[in-house]
Design a protein that fits this description.
Chain A: One of its GO terms (cellular component) is plasma membrane. Chain A: Its main location: membrane. Chain A: This is Putative aldouronate transport system permease protein. Chain A: It holds the Pfam family BPD_transp_1. The complex is a heterotrimer of chains A (about 300), B (about 575) and C (about 300). With about 300 residues, chain A is an all-alpha fold. Chain A has a single domain, classed as MetI-like fold, CATH 1.10.3720.10. Helix content of chain A is about 70%, strand content about 0%. In chain A, helix 1 runs antiparallel to helix 16, helix 4 runs antiparallel to helix 11 and helix 11 runs antiparallel to helix 16. In chain A, about 45% of the residues are buried. Chain B has about 575 residues and is mainly alpha-helical. Chain B has 3 domains: about 220 residues, D-Maltodextrin-Binding Protein, domain 2 (3-Layer(aba) Sandwich); about 230 residues, D-Maltodextrin-Binding Protein, domain 2 (3-Layer(aba) Sandwich); about 60 residues, no CATH class. In chain B, the strands form 6 sheets. Chain B has a 3-stranded antiparallel β-sheet. A 3-stranded antiparallel β-sheet of chain B has the order 10-7-11. Chain C folds into 2 domains: about 50 residues; about 230 residues, MetI-like (MetI-like fold), CATH 1.10.3720.10. Chain C has 14 helices and 2 strands. In chain C, helix 8 crosses helix 10 and helix 13 runs antiparallel to helix 14. The chains are: A mainly alpha (about 300), B mainly alpha (about 575), C mainly alpha (about 300). Chains A and C meet through helix 1, helix 4, helix 5, helix 6 and helix 8 of A and helix 1, helix 4, helix 5, helix 6 and helix 8 of C.
Chain lengths: ~300, ~575, ~300
């Protein structure tokens, strides 16, 4: 019977792997295509002749992306933004999630706060009011304009709060019996026990800050203050049909000369690399049941 | 990078040149222009003496220009929104403090401060829109037509009528006059001038037929003239394997999902087919009895649509034309040898087509013609950008003075030869375009510059003009033309410029075409509420008729609906404006 | 176990965030009153004329309003459902893989498409679905005539949903994977000893373990019921398929771009906010009544 089971198990394992393998390929091909395009000659790529191997391989697109000092300046600003924003998100998310994971008996105002969060998550005033507000605070052209408005990621708070609530209550109670205060419980018990979920929300917040480009465009007055994604976006902005008809022929020709697939592809690859490097570190926390097993029940 | 400005300089020179050679000039009411243009042509040799000459040219103009170019007594600061270029300045120079900005400040006494900068069309537009929405305009900036209208509606702009009259230089005024008052009228509401417009190039409007001549020759087909010729060629290109690879992988005529562009065309508009039927969609025109009507709802469109739908059904038009994200794809991929586009197609996308297939030999034709054998085309607005000043700014004259100063520099009429030489040397050394660092991205141009330019290059090639009298930019295009003649398709930059002028400019120069001007380009009250809906209806109807999703008779329903859904009201408003309220 | 002192600490933990939200989220919402005005930037909010619900009225009386509302909700709902289910199934499958190296590699690769922009993906998918594209070539093998997918109002919505799922499932699976990580291995061991088959383990241990996460994500996702993804559709659609894929956002973009209609844009935003708020509250109530689970 054991043998039968293991044969069946192997068949199941095998088919699961096969399915996952196909899915992975489906995800990989466009990516390889992007890489191939980024290393290809512009005209070949524009004609749609590049599939998975570069044609007339060239690093011209990368040279253009990395062209001058401004790339690294923008890179540094992005790093600064991710560090500041990520840290702020981390601290605020953990604190809020912890406090809100208490029920209304322990924290009477909890529900009021909670609905306030949900409200701010779902309502927005639109871009013009948002711009006017930040201008009113005098934050235009400052790194804080990129960080403070996104200091609380409500989605992440709710996510983490739910994970916190799944931790056994007895843990909290036992610690409090021993005279531990809420801050101690949060830092010494909740955080170590929730590393996978904290890693998840931290990843979300890093990716969010890294990928945002629109606020940089609107809120920064000088190009020197653009974060990387904004800078990369302005290297070539998508040429809309409306823009096409209002541009002069030579402007358009110039824009088109750089607005091609190879350049766009190189931009994507360059901007993905830092995230790629970070991911394995974060992934370490996803190893099955690292510490939870030992404490749960 | 804004090669447009580069072109303009050269055009100014062509203008000046023709002024010299024709002994007066036929299109620009130049009085002292001939004189100063001459100074420009002689390049650096021109010095203070020409400035004196200019100053003494005419008593009436003298006072005006003295005031126009006079350095302001007290330093003035003007805050602007700046469209940042792609040019890479050398170490130590910045967008708001560089050799160009310092020079302009030194001659005008006006300090330009960049409140904000944005690079590229869309980001700049975005910034301007936000500035308008939050009522936080810099002192001066360049806006587009819609933004201008919004700003005027909201009473956010300074009236520049007096400042322009008093401080505008003769040069600037001449160029506005060359549009017969159309340019200024475009920025004028209730007799108040709210913006200083650019002057666009007329040659951008006609959409020519571009053909792979090598395919045409291979299939032994004659050059096209009529719609029937075009039909035959499209059929042959789609079905007779013009690229000779034994596969049926070519298409006939390509198109764009916009169907027609209406004003300034890009590749693949069907504008010319419509105008061959004397239909002018997307333009406000006067009908036979002199009434103002909207071009897209006139019965002539139906004939053009019938033809196009028939072609599409028979596979003469690229079956996927409406789906391309980027319209140039089949051209660049050399799947087609037949499309419509304006004179500058060699700059883009044809250069890419030739790189992909060096056998590609493109030619331009003014075809198809209408029944009477005439090439008919709609025209484009003379202006689409406006330099405006925030209401309440204390020194609107400073903005006019800046425009005077950099326009004079751009036209190479600046008498400060030593300084100009420094700028030229800087440009040559660094590859930076001086004009991209003028405070405002606003170019004044004589509107028929392209054909003039073609004419002069050809004359120089024949030895009728001395290319050494050209300024550096102009010389470059001449040189490119020579380079291309000697070594065809070796240097693509040379190919682009040479072919755009030789083919595109040449056809425009050599064709006697009927130009139909739109009588109105702006927006009316009702349009504001209804135009999007009407336009959507129009675009979808035209497209669907062509691809066969709708029968041709759907055009009549569309026209009827258009009138009902507000078109009549809008037509009345437009007519009122055109007929002077 | 209520302790006043603890509650004080909880307040202290929440307040900095609440303050920032007040400053940067609530204040701008206040400005959204321009949705009820004919907002003239030159005159500001206090000087602009109040028009009541006229902007909303305008939105609903547009000849196309029924179509764009339908398209928006139809596409959004399909996407919400697919984006909940596909990542879950994927995470469950991945969870069955015992080889750590494979698991990590697969996980890394599938989340990469999230980082490719729609601008580029649109061109890739265009090639895939074009007349000469892979899909049509495959159909050709079965003797099926090529289909112009991008021009077909029947196929295009399916393509929109499928490509969106393809792009996001790896990233969306991250939350599920974190939740799966939190399941006590002892439960599996116990089930294993009882001789439960893998399917039974899945049913009795794994699924209950992620149930709360599914409910949570589903509820939060309802906030997107009016967001069908502007970026994607704007980059992929064309006039031939407006009928099946023109959504509120793309429509307003085209209106707004022409006319700088601030009030209309804000009205649309507000409308979307109200609808999503109502839906989220509704699903919160449902979840707590039927699943006994309080999300917030």
């Amino acid at each position: 019977m054991v043998g039968q089971n293991s044969v069946r198990n192997r068949i199941i394992d095998g088919s699961i792997l096969a399915v996952l393998f196909l899915i992975t390929i489906a995800c990989l091909i466009p990516l390889l295509h992007t890489v191939a395009v980024s290393f290809s000659d512009k005209t070949a790529a524009d004609a749609g002749r590049v599939f998975l191997t570069p044609i007339k391989a060239t690093t011209a697109s990368y040279a253009k992306v990395l062209d001058d000092g401004q790339f690294f300046q923008a890179f540094l600003i992005s790093v600064q933004r991710v560090l500041l924003g990520g840290l702020l998100n981390f601290v605020l998310t953990v604190m809020m999630a912890f406090a809100l994971s208490k029920d209304a008996k322990q924290f009477p105002m909890r529900n009021v706060y909670m609905w306030f969060l949900v409200f701010t998550m779902l309502f927005s005033g639109g871009i013009v009011p948002w711009f006017m507000t930040i201008k009113y605070y005098g934050l235009l052209d400052s790194i804080w304009a990129l960080v403070l408005p996104h200091a609380v990621q409500v989605f992440n708070v709710i996510l983490l709060m739910n994970f916190f609530r799944n931790l056994p209550k007895e843990l909290n109670e036992a610690a409090e019996m021993d005279g531990a205060g809420p801050w101690y419980v949060m830092v010494r018990l909740y955080i170590p026990l929730s590393l996978p979920s904290i890693a998840t929300v931290t990843l979300f917040s890093i990716v969010f800050h890294w990928n945002s480009f629109f606020d940089g465009l609107v809120l920064m007055s000088k190009q020197d203050h653009y974060p990387l994604q904004t800078y990369i976006q302005t290297l070539v902005t998508q040429i809309s049909a409306q823009a096409m008809t209002s541009m002069s022929p030579e402007e358009l020709a110039a824009a088109m000369a750089v607005s091609n697939r190879t350049f766009n592809a190189a931009k994507i690859i360059v901007s993905m690399i830092p995230i790629l490097l970070i991911y394995p570190f974060i992934q370490r926390f996803f190893i099955h049941g690292i510490t939870l097993g030992s404490v749960k029940e | 990078m804004k090669p447009k400005l580069w072109l303009a300089t050269s055009m100014a020179l062509v203008m000046a040149l023709s002024a010299c050679s024709n002994g007066g000039g036929n299109n620009a009411p130049v009085n002292e222009g001939g004189n100063s243009g001459n100074a420009g042509n002689n390049g650096k040799a021109a010095n203070n003496s020409s400035a004196t000459g200019e100053g003494n040219a005419e008593a009436g103009a003298k006072a005006g220009d003295d005031l126009a170019y006079e350095k302001v007594a007290e330093p003035i600061t003007v805050n602007i929104g700046f469209r940042a270029p792609d040019d890479k300045l050398p170490e130590g120079e910045s967008n708001d403090n560089n050799i160009v900005s310092r020079y302009l400040e030194s001659i005008t006494g006006i300090k330009v401060v960049h409140t904000w900068e944005a690079k590229g069309e869309d980001p700049f537009k975005q910034k301007v829109n936000l500035a308008i929405a939050s009522n936080d305009l810099p002192d001066a900036l360049v806006v587009d037509r819609n933004q201008l209208r919004k700003l005027i509606d909201n009473d956010m702009l300074e009236d520049l009528t007096e400042e322009y009259e008093k401080y505008g230089s003769q040069l600037v005024k001449d160029m506005y006059d060359s549009t017969k008052g159309l340019a200024l009228a475009d920025a004028t509401v209730d007799d108040k001038l709210y913006g200083l417009p650019n002057v666009a190039i007329e040659a951008d409007a006609p959409s020519l037929l571009w053909i792979r001549q090598d395919w045409l020759d291979k299939l032994k087909l004659p050059a096209p003239k009529t719609l029937a010729d075009l039909e035959k060629i499209a059929d042959a290109f789609a079905n007779q394997d013009p690229d000779g690879n034994g596969k049926k992988d070519t298409v006939g005529l390509t198109g764009d999902k916009m169907v027609v562009y209406g004003q300034k065309p890009n590749p693949n508009g069907f504008d010319t087919i419509f105008s061959a039927f004397r239909a002018f969609p997307k333009n406000w025109i006067k009908d036979a009895s002199g009434n103002v009507v909207y071009g897209s709802v006139q019965p002539e469109n139906k004939e053009a649509l019938t033809k196009l739908a028939d072609w599409y059904k028979r596979g003469l038009i690229d079956p996927q034309f409406a789906l391309y994200k980027e319209t140039q794809e089949p051209i660049v991929a050399n799947k087609t040898g037949l499309f419509f586009g304006p004179w500058w197609m060699p700059y883009w996308p044809l250069a890419d087509s030739v790189v992909n297939d060096t056998k590609a030999d493109w030619k331009a034709y003014a075809a198809p013609t209408d029944e009477s054998g005439k090439f008919v085309t709609h025209m484009a607005p003379v202006t689409d950008r406006y330099l405006v000043v925030r209401k309440g700014y204390e020194h609107p004259e400073a903005v006019v003075k800046l425009l005077n100063a950099f326009t004079r520099l751009e036209r190479r009429q600046d008498p400060n030869a030593a300084e100009v030489k420094k700028l030229d040397d800087f440009a040559a050394e660094t590859g930076v375009h001086v004009r991209n660092f003028y405070p405002f991205d606003l170019l004044l141009d004589y509107s028929d510059a392209v054909v003039q330019r073609y004419d002069n290059v050809q004359k120089a090639l024949k030895g009728e003009l001395d290319p050494n009298s050209f300024d550096p930019d102009m010389k470059l295009v001449y040189d490119y033309t020579v380079t291309e003649k000697e070594n065809p398709k070796k240097n693509m930059d040379a190919w682009k410029a040479a072919k755009a002028y030789e083919l595109g400019g040449g056809v425009l120069f050599g064709t006697d075409m009927e130009k139909v001007y739109s009588v109105f380009y702006g927006m009316t009250r009702s349009m504001e509420m209804k135009w999007t809906t009407l336009e959507k209806l129009e675009n979808e109807t035209f497209l669907k008729i062509i691809v066969g999703d709708l029968p041709v008779s759907a055009f009549d329903d569309f026209a009827a609906q258009w009138h009902k859904l507000g078109g009549d009201q809008i037509t009345k408003e437009v007519a009122d404006i055109v007929n002077g309220k | 176990m209520y302790s006043r002192k603890n509650a004080l600490h909880y307040h202290a933990m929440v307040l900095p965030g609440i303050l920032l939200l007040l400053l940067f989220s609530v204040v701008p919402i206040g400005f959204a009153v321009i949705a009820f005005q004919n907002f003239k930037p030159g005159r500001g909010i206090t000087g602009s004329e109040w028009v009541g619900l006229e902007n909303f009225h305008y939105l609903f009386q547009l000849p196309d309003s029924r179509l764009i509302f339908f398209n928006t909700i139809f596409l959004a709902v399909l996407k919400i459902a697919a984006n909940l289910i596909v990542p879950l199934v994927f995470a469950l499958l991945l969870n069955e893989v015992r080889v750590r190296f494979l698991r990590k590699s697969i996980q890394t690769i599938v989340y990469l498409p999230h980082f490719i922009s729609w601008v580029l993906l649109a061109t890739i998918f265009f090639d895939v679905f074009s007349l000469e594209g892979i899909v049509n070539q495959a159909l050709g093998l079965f003797g099926i005539d090529p289909v112009l997918f991008y021009a077909s109002n029947r196929w295009f919505p399916a393509i929109i949903v499928a490509t969106d799922v393809w792009k996001e499932f790896g990233f969306n699976a991250i939350v599920y994977l974190a939740a799966l990580t939190g399941i006590n291995p002892a439960l599996y061991e116990a089930a294993g000893i009882d001789g439960a088959s893998r399917f039974r383990q899945l049913w009795h241990v794994t699924l209950p373990g992620v149930k709360t996460t599914v409910i949570l994500l589903a509820t939060l996702a309802l906030g997107n019921v009016m967001n069908a993804n502007f970026d994607q559709i704007f980059n992929m659609y064309n006039p031939l398929v407006y009928q099946s894929s023109d959504i509120i956002d793309t429509y307003v973009y085209r209106v707004g771009l022409n006319d700088l209609q601030y009030s209309l844009g804000t009205a649309v935003g507000l409308l979307k906010s109200v609808v999503s708020f109502i839906l989220v509250v509704l699903s919160y109530v449902l979840a707590s009544r039927f699943a006994g689970y309080r999300i917030f």
